[in-house]
Design a protein that fits this description.
By secondary structure, the chain is mainly β. β10 and β11 form a beta hairpin. 44% of the residues are buried. The N terminus is likely disordered. The protein is built from 1 helix and 30 strands. The protein folds into 2 domains: 338 residues, Tachylectin-2, Chain A, CATH 2.115.10.20; 100 residues, Exo-inulinase, domain 1 (Jelly Rolls, Sandwich). It binds beta-D-fructofuranose (FRU). Beta-D-fructofuranose binds next to β1, β5, β9 and β13.
């Protein structure tokens, strides 16, 4: 966020370079991506390369409060559910003048057999945020390009908030969106193009809000084609409006059409939240070989107390989700990727279990028509519209809950803390007909 970036920019690093230890595993996640130790934030460089899914993440092994310079941590998987840390686990470290302040968020693409990471480097002396690249042939060891930074100046028509390049290819040409801020301090994204990922031409703003209704800075923009439309989503900060935009820091999206000739993205005025839970930010998507659009996000919101920070680590990514558009083209839907069923162990059918703690409640309120997720009295709720049937898929891990309602029309992702993990009761009341439950213990 703009506020936070300001703090990062004027801060300086006086900590040690040693990785800290995890001192208590009570909240460690069992099947979500977490850091081996220390701090994790945005998912980066999501890609499929040489038979593996790659997830990089913003990583600071030296602290659980993210105070040290960020690096790219790295995990791989052949099936999107069983992940292992690569050796070394750090793919990109801040060791050059142009990134010594931090190897910040970016994306990765397969460029003719070379996995190419396109990332934000924070120049420690100038505080400038510029775009750099690094390449790898084995998908594990990266070499930074000698001509970095590949975007050596920030766009003159914006401020120096300029980060999080996301690259894709269309008709043989590389395109890149970068998060930026207009001179009037409104969030926007800017567009570049290139033939070789090394020389970039600035094409101007891709979406530029005339006022600050969509936040003062856009971070982690993603722009992609899905089911006949173009979608732009980004992380920002929007003033709360009733049930909407309740978090400090959230992902919102626009749907529209992009013309590659004129480079104009004409989109609907309205924008929506990608997720309606307590903790969801800095999402990134990629297209996999099965032609799916898959997303991971950082389960975070700002101003929240994440209890695991006292245990020597912080934060988790979401489970991978497949994106699509609703049949009327007006909303992005997210469903868990099919592979998550591989985690299923013992099955419980129609066997409600007792719950002790009441810190977490998920219910559908028939009176208001809202799906409600209550975490220690802090409520997030979504109007489900007029529905005849409610279908919920709920993923619980040691310290998170992700709810997918009615085939991904609504999702809610939140962290929660209960030691030990509470048992769960599933029930329906007040004359609801035809209720079916199915529950599985998920393997680690
Ligand atoms: C989003 C963000 C990005 C930045 C990164 C730094 O959470 O602020 O804009 O590149 O985190 O870790």
């Amino acid at each position: 966020m703009f506020r936070r970036s300001l703090i990062l920019l004027i801060g300086f690093w006086i900590g040690s370079n040693e990785a800290i230890n995890v001192t208590n595993s009570r909240y460690r996640q069992n099947y979500h991506i977490i850091a081996p130790t220390g701090w994790l934030n945005d998912p980066n460089g999501l890609s499929y390369f040489n038979g593996n899914y790659h997830v990089f993440f913003q990583y600071d092994p030296t602290s659980s409060n993210g105070g040290g310079p960020k690096q790219w941590g790295h995990v791989t998987s052949t099936d999107l559910v069983n992940w292992k840390y690569t050796q070394p686990t750090i793919a990109l470290a801040p060791d050059q003048s142009y990134d010594v302040g931090g190897v910040w968020t970016g994306s990765a693409v397969n460029n003719n057999g070379e996995l190419t990471a396109i990332y934000t480097g924070l120049h420690n002396n100038t505080g400038e945020q510029l775009v750099n690249i690094a390449t790898s042939t084995d998908g594990v060891t990266f070499t930074k390009y000698s001509g970095n930074p590949v975007v050596p100046t920030q766009p003159i028509d914006g401020t120096n908030q300029f980060r999080d390049p996301k690259v894709w290819k269309y008709n043989g040409v590389w395109y890149m969106v970068v998060g930026n801020q207009s001179k009037k301090n409104h969030g926007r994204t800017v567009l570049y193009q290139s033939d070789d990922l090394r020389q970039w031409t600035y094409l101007g703003p891709l979406a530029d809000e005339p006022d600050n209704r969509v936040g003062s800075m856009w971070e982690c923009p993603n722009f992609f084609y899905i089911n006949g439309k173009h979608v732009l989503f980004m992380g920002t900060d929007v003033e709360r409006d009733g049930d909407h935009f309740a978090n400090q820091g959230l992902n919102v999206y626009f749907i529209g059409d992009f013309n590659y000739e004129t480079k104009v993205f004409s989109h609907a005025v309205d924008f929506y939240e990608l997720d309606n839970g307590h903790d969801f930010y800095a999402a990134q998507m990629f297209q996999d070989p099965k032609n799916r659009t898959i997303l991971f996000a950082w389960m975070n919101s700002f101003g929240t107390n994440f209890e695991e920070m006292q245990d020597g680590w912080a934060h988790t990514l979401t489970v991978p989700r497949q994106l699509r558009l609703s049949s009327d083209g007006s909303r992005v839907q997210m469903i868990p990727v099919d592979e998550l069923t591989l985690l299923r162990g013992t099955e419980y059918i129609n066997s409600p279990i007792e719950i002790e703690g009441h810190d977490l409640r998920l219910y559908y309120d028939k009176q208001t028509g809202k799906l409600v997720l209550e975490r220690t009295k802090d409520v997030r709720q979504v109007d489900m519209g007029s529905i005849m049937q409610l279908n919920l898929r709920i993923f619980l891990d040691q310290s998170s809950i992700e709810v997918f309602a009615n085939d991904g029309n609504v999702t809610m992702s939140s962290r929660y803390y209960k030691d030990p993990i509470p048992t769960i009761t599933l029930f329906a009341e007040y004359g609801v007909a035809n209720v079916e439950f199915q529950a599985f213990r998920l393997n680690n």
